Amino acid sequence: MPGRRVGILAIGLLLAGLRTVEASSIVYGIQATTGTIVTVNPVTGAIVNSYATPAAIAATDGNAGLTYAAPLDQLLYFNQSVSNTLYRLDPDTGALLGTAVGDSFANSGLSYEQSGGQDFLYYAHQNVDVHRQTGFGGGAGFFWATGEPSQGLGGDGYGREFGIFNDGQIHEYNPFVDTNAFINGFAAPAGAVGLAFDGSQLYVSTSQGLLLTLNANTGAVLNSVAVAGGNLIELGANANGIVAAVPEPASLLLLGSGLVGAAVRRRKSRGRL
Q: How do residues 127-152 score in pLDDT, each as one tens digit?
């Protein structure tokens, strides 16, 4: 009985010591220096996948659009310096899923939202305004008055939309009501160029080659890593939603000690018989 109690205690301590860890989102980025769209682990900065951009991008190009359209499970890519074609891609392979007519102005960012089954695309017309396109094709049909974007845009696909603006801040704005006002704002990290939002956290790439993870409500930097091969000029992010329970090291030690103790007591008990 004492051995059983020790084992039960150790297991109880293990369960109490479990910590829930949410696996990081998948972050995509345009790396102009390598001419590729890369998949990056935002925790380590490691590039885990890459494929060529549709139509060659110049190594010195600093303006292009990329976003993950969560309701469609597609990547959207746009580079007006090459053409005004909007590309719809398989996010895992880069395979072309379709094309449409995009915005006709130079852009530094791209984002996607869906409401009532309707697709909306947002283009950052640098230093001017945000252009909104309803549906795929036909060019931008509305010039959104909300602020003057300086760099990337990021949205979760379901109604929350952010941008890097000329006042040096990252602002959240309403993507469906053109109020010419911001919902929230905080200082953008130095050199911020690319932006993505996975519905929980913001991801910012910088001209110094960093990838930052930010609290979407306060702007607090939660993680910072370097990305090999050059900076990412625009981002997309996909939350994978995997949650795991990981035991703390001390809990594992207690579990091991408890099990060993229980085994010793069982042997002693059998010896008396």
A: 899 999 999 977 777 788 778 999 99
Lowest mean pLDDT segment, chosen from 91-105, 178-192, 250-264:
250-264
Rounded Cα distance, 50 and 44, in Å: 16
Report the run of H or E that residue 259 belongs to, with start and end.
helix 249-272
Name the pairing type of β-strands 192-197 and 184-187.
unpaired
Nearest alpha carbon to residue 193 among 230, 146, 139: 230
16 class by beta-carbon count within 10 Å (0-12 exposed, 13-18 middle, 19+ buried): exposed
211 within 8 A of 225, measured Cβ to Cβ: yes
Distance, in Å, from the CA atom of 75 to the CA atom of 65, rounded to the nearest integer, reads: 10
CATH number of 24-241: 2.120.10.30
Q: What is the pLDDT of residues 209-228, one digit of tens each?
A: 999 999 999 999 999 999 99
pTM score of the predicted model: 0.80
Q: Give the integer Cα–Cα distance in Å for 159 and 162.
A: 10
